[in-house]
């Protein structure tokens, strides 16, 4: 069963898919494996066919490291745009997100057991 609808010309989805695959240097076969569809289906999607199996598109988006909303429309989900980085994310690349002095205090949330004497 083919996972596409009729060709409609370049769609945002087709443009984004082509761009992501180029950026990741991903072949049709690799993308098809991520989505669980035939390589011809990925080729149809890149040509402008609208996907009929959104679960396959969701798997493909996850494999490409983007949200379903982004791969379909080019826009991030509201949830994604509200993402606040964790302390680890802020400092993991040498502090590119943070330029300054920080003092981090970590306190125990669970009290220690009293030692028997």
Features:
single chain; 117 residues; mainly alpha; 434 Repressor (Amino-terminal Domain); two-stranded antiparallel ribbon; 7 helices; 2 strands; 46% helix
Question: Could you characterize what this model shows?
Answer:
With 117 residues, this protein is mainly alpha-helical. The chain has a domain at 4-80: Orthogonal Bundle (434 Repressor (Amino-terminal Domain)), CATH 1.10.260.40. The chain is built from seven helices and two strands.
Give the topology, please.
Blueprint: E1 4-7, H1 12-23, H2 28-35, H3 39-46, E2 49-51, H4 54-64, H5 68-73, H6 78-81, H7 87-91
Antiparallel strand pairs: 1-2
Helix pairs in contact: 2-3, 2-4
Largest sheet: 2 strands, antiparallel
Q: Within the CATH hierarchy, at the fold level, what is the topology of the domain at 4-80?
A: 434 Repressor (Amino-terminal Domain)
The top-level CATH class of the domain at 4-80 is Mainly Alpha
Number of helices: 7
Please name the fourth-level CATH homologous superfamily of the domain at 4-80: lambda repressor-like DNA-binding domains
Overall mean pLDDT stands at: 76
Shape assignment? elongated
What letter string, H or E per element, gives the SSE order? Answer: EHHHEHHHH
Q: How would you sum up this structure in a few lines?
A:
By secondary structure, the chain is mainly alpha-helical. It contains 7 helices and 2 strands. The chain starts with a strand and ends in a 26-residue tail after the last helix.
